[in-house]
Specification:
Strand content: 5-15%
CATH superfamily: Tetratricopeptide repeat domain
Radius of gyration: 15 Å
Oligomer: single chain
Distance between the termini: 31 Å
Strand order of the largest sheet: 2-3-1-4
Order of helices and strands: EEEEHHHHHHH
Length: 179
């Protein structure tokens, strides 16, 4: 079962805006484009580290809040949400560094951290999938493919990683080869 702290954003190559849509269940979605099939999806930890600002499209506000705090209680959520916010505002170099940091934190979690093995693997898959979106938007198709594939291998139930990999492959193999 998915953690209630996560919320999904859909990222378009051409636009990145968000508006919350209430969906049944633990996961909810914010959408960036009218054609959902044409959007990458990024996961946000909604109830932590300015996640509600990221989901609400207040990316600069989220960045400001996260950068001013240390978030020792949840370094993964802070780095993950900052990765999404930086990606949303086009700060690619900053996003790259913090997406890598989110992945690093997710991999260094150990037993006794209050998370199950499945939750730790889910967080790793989220970090990989989010970094894959950043790479796809930056034109690194091979890097994005590796990240999406690793996310699916790590936690096959993360539908966003499955969706992102399928979207990347469809775009890469399509007539325009546009990502």
């Amino acid at each position: 079962m998915m953690n209630r702290y996560h919320r999904i954003l859909r990222v378009s190559l051409y636009a990145f805006t968000a508006s919350a849509l209430a969906l049944p269940g633990a996961w909810s979605t914010a959408t960036a484009v009218a054609d959902d099939a044409d959007a990458y999806r990024m996961a946000v930890i909604q109830n932590r580290a300015a996640g509600r600002h990221v989901v609400g499209g207040e990316f600069e506000r989220a960045i400001d809040k996260i950068e001013k705090r240390t978030y020792l209680d949840d370094r993964f959520a802070a780095r993950n949400n900052l990765c999404v916010a930086y990606t949303a505002v086009g700060r690619i170099e900053d996003a790259s560094a913090v997406c890598d940091a989110a992945l690093d934190v997710s991999r260094k979690r150990v037993q006794g951290d209050g998370l199950t093995r499945g939750e730790r693997r889910r967080d790793e898959a989220i970090a990989l999938s989010n970094r894959g979106v950043l790479r796809a938007l930056a034109g690194d198709v091979d890097g994005a493919r590796r990240d999406f594939s690793s996310a699916v291998e790590s936690h096959g139930d993360l539908s966003e990683a499955v969706h992102n990999l399928a979207r990347l492959e469809a775009r890469a193999n399509g007539p325009t080869s546009a990502l």
